[in-house]
Amino acid sequence: MQAERVLLKTDAQGNLIGLPKLPPHIHLEAIFLLEDKIPERKRCPPPKLKGTVITSTSTSDAVHPSTPFDPFKPAMSDEEWEASLDRTARQISGDPEAFK
Question: What is residue 59's predicted lDDT score, i.e. its pLDDT?
Answer without folding.
Answer: 59
